From TrEMBL:
Native source species: Streptomyces glaucescens
Annotated protein name in UniProt: Winged helix DNA-binding domain-containing protein
Top-level lineage group: Bacteria
Pfam family name, one: AlkZ-like
Amino acid sequence: MGGGTVRRHIGAAERRTRLGLRHRLAAGAGAARPEDVAEALVALHGTDPATVYLAVGARLAEPQKTVAETERALYEDRSLVRMHGMRHTVFVFPAELTAVVHASTGIAVAARARASLLQDMAKAGAPDASWLAEVEASTLAALARRGEATAAELAADEPRLREQFVYAAGKSYEGVHTVSGRLLRVLGVEGKVVRGRPLGSWTSSQFRWALAPDHPELDVAGAQAGLLRRWLAVCGPATEADLKWWTGWRVTEVRRALGAIGAREVALDEGTGYVVEGDEEPVPESAGPWAALLPALDPTAMGWQQRDWYLAPELRPALFDRSGNVGPTVWWDGRVVGGWAQRPDGDVVWRILDGAGVGREAEAAIEAEARRLREWVGTTRVTPRFRTPLERELAG
């Protein structure tokens, strides 16, 4: 992987230039379609449904088309697919990447998820694996007949989905789980079902379910190499720690994939970094400084484990929740400089955090982005699923 003893140093400024250009944020880099945004980012974080649309809208050249075009891609053309991926998290992927994601990360996660469900049911004295297999087959058949359905609609066809069992009996976190909730989640990580159109607006988290599109079964190691190559091409350079964190793989898997794609070592301020072959040379300068308002859990803000090159440590307490989820962020020329929120009356407000050090040009550009966001969001009210200190304060 080294390709020689002399490694080119890629500093923070160049990394921020790469980020702006490749993540479709720099001036003139806006995308034409949601598919172009997903392609540029590899995956759109989908735990909070609104994040998908807000992340797309921040990068479209014509953001007023965000909702209609994203719904077309997700629910009509199916060119984007919402499914479980890295770190057992829901993402929206380009459709052609679903087989790669399933083989590279989903298979291992799915095995753990199914084992956990069976173990929890056994501890609760619930029916065994053969019973669950019958319910699963019946559920998938019902979904095939309906095309799309909610969990409640599926339970009307397969009443055993309503069965409940006690989880973690006697523990402080004891709870009651419904078979439908746990089983549909397992089927999701196994690549058998995907989330379909929501019941409400684009901010709704109440989804219908649909059968997953057919995809070929790929070799795990080959799929991991393919996924890592794709991500490194848009997010490189990155450290081994970044790669391990983003993928959720073991370090041995990360190193195997780096070797398989012939990744090149470069020197970063944090230590050794990696880029894809041919990406070692300096990148062209961007068209000038740029501003962006990115949503909570945006894939750019959450893209790396080591973030000092774009996010000063002293700003983090205001922008993250206790679980490490980032809230809405304000960016200026490749750095996070503050946060934003939407108030109940629909106004989009923002604040530059102390120590960020921006001037009037930045503030004018950020306000222009806030106006752009207000215009396309319109009457919709967006509250992040994971609230952060600054977002709560600004939202009032």
